[in-house]
Amino acid sequence: MTFTGDLIGLDIGGSTTRGVLFRDGRAVRHARGPSANVQNVSPNAAASALRGVFGELGAGPSVPVVAGAGGVDTPADAARLEARIRSVSGAPSEVPVTAVHDTRLILAAGGHTIGISVIAGTGSVAWGIDSTGRERRAGGWGYLLGDEGSGYWLGREAVRAVLRAHQCEPDAPASTFARAIVKQSRVREPVELIAAFHDRPERSFWAGLSRTVVEYAASGDATALDLTQRAAKELHSLVITVAGHIRGPLPVVLGGGLARTAVGEGLKKLLADSDVLDVTVLSQEPVLGAPMLARAVWG
Q: Around 144, how many Cα atoms within 13 Å sit in the side-chain half-sphere?
């Protein structure tokens, strides 16, 4: 069942904020803006992004809001995001505004209220809930501490692979893959990647290299294939960690930009080898799971 009445769903990602106005569970208006996640942008920029999304949706302050976002790791994190949303939307205290970790949107968008969801996007995380209400999460520590298997991780590992190859054979011509990474990184030589990486800390920029990695993996490049396989193994470890602490078997929903690439395919194969067979790659935007999620959290 889904939430009845008007509802705003938000998916606050590392690069983009997506908003949808629902009426009796049906999406009637969509909005898109920059990231409103304070892990990636300043509080002022986050508020500005939210104002833009709410403005496009055109809903009044009396409409309930359910938001999924990375970095909502504690009740205090949720309370801060809820307060930010209220300050922008003008919602009075009696109007429900709930913020949860964005993995919950993934699961709901996949049509489940219990199960395991995996995000393989700019960052990475797995989260699950079983029929008893027991929850478990693995990963989602952010790019400085983890996010293995994510777009950022894949981009960083691609840079490291190019640097290692250049270090081992500095006089050898760079491979086609290495030249592509160098070009996308806006430098001229592999060695210049070192300064470029430290001078440009924006994780979305380096996560963008993951597109080049998956493109070259699809064409059979050995280095790119190795990177996507390693990413799949890291994500598999997250899923197995979650599954080991909640009651199963449970469905698994894969979301994020890498879910529909060689990384996602590799993860599905590894899960099948672990007897996890009910795996869905999300075919719609996670924010479309907001009505089911709202029903689950508000009753």
A: 6
